[in-house]
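note to self — DONT lose this again. spent like an hour looking for the file last time. sequence + predicted structure for the chain T wanted, 148 res
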Amino acid sequence: MMRRTAGFSVAAMLLGLLAAAPARADSAADARAMLDRAVAAIKVNPSAALEAFVKGTDGFRQGDLYPFCARARSGVVVAHPSRLGENLANESDKNGKLFGKEILRTAVEGKISELHYMWPKPDQTTPVQKDTFYTKVKGFVCGVGYYK
């Protein structure tokens, strides 16, 4: 009986420590992996992929990570949790950096690029550094950003 109680106590303690541990922040590797999966999904079925990005299904929402896409020619956002229909080219950070225009201008099919800018986390107003991996695929410019 003593063994079972001791084993239960250790297990309960470990569960308590895990519950008290801070949530893991999304990383550059997580963002890059999600972008790679997003590109693969668009290559298979663009319509289904964009729908999954908007809804955050099929693993396309993880913490603060999500893919976004805009039409490469017009800049109109076609996949984003809250900015559908807006023009990516008009997006600027608190320092006036037109990061949306830069993403649209520099995205190259088959090449992953990275851009740094200041942007508030969801449901916050104070901008922090956000890094975004992005590329062009099948007429779209898509990216996934993470906060530093």
